[in-house]
Specification:
- The protein has 355 residues and is α/β, with parallel strands linked by helices.
- The protein folds into two domains: 90 residues, Arc Repressor Mutant, subunit A; 222 residues, Vaccinia Virus protein VP39 (Rossmann fold, 3-Layer(aba) Sandwich), CATH 3.40.50.150.
- It contains 17 helices and nine strands.
- It has a seven-stranded mixed sheet with strand order 5-4-3-6-7-9-8, with helices on both faces.
- The longest helix is centred in the first third of the chain and has 21 residues.
- It is globular.
- The protein starts with 10 loop residues before the first helix and ends with a helix.
Amino acid sequence: MSNNLPLHPLNTCWDLAASAVRAEALDAALELKLFDALTEPSTAAELAARRDLHPLNTSHLLELLWSMGLLRRQRHDAEPDLYELSATAREFLVREAPGYCGDAWRYRLTSLRGMASRLRAHVQQGPQLPQSAFQSATGAGWAAAARAQIGQEQRTISAAGALSIVGQLPQAQASRRLLDLGGGPGWIAIELARHLPNLSGVVFDWPETALVAQENIDSSGLSRRLSAQGGDVAVDSLGENYDLVWCSSVLHFVPDIQAVLAKVMAAMAPGGLFIFVHAELPPTAEEAARVMPFYLPMRMVGRHVVPEGTTAALMADAGFIGINSFASGDFPMSPVQVVVGRKPQASERSETSNV
């Protein structure tokens, strides 16, 4: 079949319906631990026998996973097809792999399903109060996710994205005191400390989640350089004299972004660097299609998801200088905007006030 085959105008809508089948296929494969069983090539019949499954329907499922790019298929004349893991599945979907994110993916699936089921009510009646821990970045439910599913994502995906960004910023690499604002399980701060031997600092998050971060810090052997602080970013002190502040996917949830930016500015040392990593709403339909499905439910309950460029403008209003912005696809779910700004030195503030 040619890739240039003209498709009916409704194909995009039909594909939306089919995406539910693909999601169920991946969910079933993870639940049944099929990727763990395919670390060596196997036929559908062999796999079905090992997992006590229906042979023919196991074959159908493996073929769908192959079409999704999660398996490779070997075909030989008069022999059953052999299936093996794709590179992506081997790295992220096998439970014993260092980068395993299967539990995190299933958590996101459950979360998005739950929120989507209430979308019509949001439109008809206005914002509905969150009904599950998946919708709130606070409390024991979020702390449990930080320990498990969100911890998987941050340790294997977000931490690597943070290292990539910091690696592009010489000033960040020379920093000595870090604030990881809303740092969740703390893996970003841990990885930054591992790669920057002169760096120490604080992971700030809700008290229940800060306990999880402290556990991870202690188990990583970094308790002399890092600590976790519990509190509410909107009302509690953040500390002071940070020359590097990292903040990712946090300000969606605060009551007043500008008030928090003012607090960040006050907590920073003069000349310090602020790295702000959040999803924004792109201006084109094609780009927005990669962001909006993940963040529309959040917007429906009154969270902040701002148009592209807004974060940079808010940082400028808060007094940050040297602001630079670029996109990154190295974080979970959708592309994000990375906005980097610097707190002025005293002399720079004087020059700005005289302009």
